[in-house]
Amino acid sequence: MNRRTALRQTLGFIGLSTTASLPVLNAKSSLQNPNNQRFRIGACDWSIGQSSKIEAFDVAKTIGLDGIQVNLGSEKNDMHLRRKDLQKAWREAAKRTGVQIGGLALGELNNIPYKSDPRAEQWVQDSVGVAKALGAKNILLAFFNKGDLKNDPQGTQVVIERLKAVAPKAEKAGIVLAIESWLSAEEHMAIIDAVASPAVKVYYDVCNSTVMGYDILKEIRWLGKQKQICEFHFKENSYLLGQGKVNYPEVRKAIDAIQYGGWVHIEGAVPEGKNMLESYTYNNKFVREILA
């Protein structure tokens, strides 16, 4: 599977029908976290068919998730969550449903690259204030498709300079700018070291790194030892979690080794022909059993 294909399969999965029953998990699995639990389980709003839509809160509640990772918006709607009225509406929806805002994301950077487009630079600058207003601690900056940094030293240098410019603002707000890309752990660390700010870390996607052939268990332990992983995506391309390429029991051991606690967001993981709600109910239970 090439990188472009993997990305296409990651985004926007919504099955329209069920063609076979899903595996049965332990019926005692908790669907909601009690207070002070080490992990909180969410999903990307785009993966549950509600990218940057307020309806994502109700869908997440139906699934039984603790929260959602919210997409800032798109070029078409001018990154609409920069609007104060929408920020208020999102906060009210979170309060009404009990579904938390578990993070912010800039998925449009895949099409309008941070490394080359001044609009993207402004969006990242503005996203810090949005994250603070929504109560999110991490902002996922996506570097796929047109924004890919792999084997692009010139583009990487532009990203470093732009991160240096926004990092002080993020530091002051207590916000982390999280890089998710096709890069290896070492390549991510080269960027982090060059920016030299505690506000820049890695958003670790276990499936992306598996697709790239990296040793994810080694990478998690190495990055985690340096406290450079701010959050995780649990994902599969065209499989339910636990039925694809990623060895999740071993991932749990690596997460324990670095003493990580916080949000784990589910992405993708809807097989072709499967219903999204049914798949995500299963994925939610699977993650809770793995992280129990």
Could you characterize the architecture of this molecule?
- The relative contact order is 0.17.
- This protein has ten helices and eight strands.
- The protein has helices at 3-10, 56-63, 84-97, 118-134, 153-173, 185-195, 206-211, 216-225, 248-257, 276-290, and strands at residues 39-44, 67-71, 100-106, 138-143, 176-181, 200-205, 229-236, 262-268.
- The protein is of the alpha/beta class and 292 residues long.
- Helix 6 links the parallel strand 5 and strand 6.
Brief description of this entry?
With 292 residues, this protein is α/β, with parallel strands linked by helices.
Question: How many beta-strand segments?
Answer: 8
Largest sheet: 8 strands, parallel, barrel
State the helix count: 10
**SS-derived structural category:** alpha/beta
